[in-house]
Amino acid sequence: MNPDLLRLSAVLGLLALLLILQWRFGYRRDMQLRAMLDNLLLALAGSGLLRLLVPLGTVGAALWAQSQGLGLFPAIGLDGLAAVLTTLLLMDAAIWAQHVAAHRWAWFWRLHRVHHCATRFETTLGLRFHPLEIAVSLVWKVALVLALGLPAAGIALYEVLLALAALWTHADLALPPRIERAVSSVLVTPTWHRVHHSPERECTDSHYGNLLTLWDRLANTRPARLPADPQHMAIGLEYQREDSEQHVWRLLTNPFRSAPTPAQHEETRTDA
Ligand SMILES: [Zn+2]
Ligand SMILES: [Zn+2]
């Protein structure tokens, strides 16, 4: 089966399931259909741009690199299952590092704040990224695929897992406390990622992980104090809270507007 079609089917299937679970068990049952639609439209704009930039995607890049014998993995003879598992680990660390950069570099934060200015934590937020942020991520991923000669199967699997994790980790749901503790010792959960959407700067600039919590534990990018009640805390940024900011056109043009200058928030991001 075509890997793109497989990923799309998996994403739509999980999205439908999580929407039902949120509606039934979510903390905020009042679904804001307009906000969800805006998130979906932004995702569509992003995938359109992606198609134009790299029509065959990261998997196509991996197949091409393989046909040319490019990259580190073939050079050191790393292949088979070991290569696939190493790809999953390396890509998760690389996307974690990209996320840290998105919070530290001023220009990158302008793109990434489109994800953070959402005032609702629910599954479609996992699709809400500015098309230019998706493009930057794509360039980073393709560079890694070519430099390392990552196997197509490994990168295809990582892309599916990343897309599914984005939906799951933004769901307005929580695991029972004991299960949450066990699962989040390894994997990112909605409660773990929700902290990242707190308006408190110390929390916003923490918990960058996508699949594994390992990278945040190793780099100690965790807040000194967790929110007392993450399920009911405020979501979003202290600035850009207006409903009008959430519409798709405002989201697309957001990076090109200066935010109503928030105290320290922008200034402490560097001009790398
Ligand atoms: Zn972030
Ligand atoms: Zn998020």
Principal-axis shape equals globular
Which ligands accompany this protein?
A: zinc ion
Cα separation of the termini: 41 Å
- Unreliable spans are none
Determine Rg (CA atoms, Å).
18 Å
The helix content is 55-70%
- Largest sheet: number of strands, sense, barrel closure: none
For this entry, give a set of tags:
0% strand; 272 residues; mainly alpha; binds zinc ion
What would you note in describing this structure?
- The chain has one domain (33-256).
- 60% of the residues lie in helices and 0% in strands.
- By secondary structure, the chain is mostly helical.
- It has helices spanning 3-25, 33-53, 57-68, 72-76, 80-104, 106-116, 131-148, 152-169, 177-184, 190-194, 201-204, 214-219, 248-253.
- One zinc ion (ZN) binds at residues 115, 170, 193, 196-197.
How would you concisely characterize the structure shown here?
With 272 residues, the protein is mainly α. It has one domain. It has helices at 3-25, 33-53, 57-68, 72-76, 80-104, 106-116, 131-148, 152-169, 177-184, 190-194, 201-204, 214-219, 248-253.
Question: Could you outline the blueprint of secondary structure elements for this entry?
Answer:
Elements: H1 3-25, H2 33-53, H3 57-68, H4 72-76, H5 80-104, H6 106-116, H7 131-148, H8 152-169, H9 177-184, H10 190-194, H11 201-204, H12 214-219, H13 248-253
The chain binds zinc ion (ZN) (2 copies).
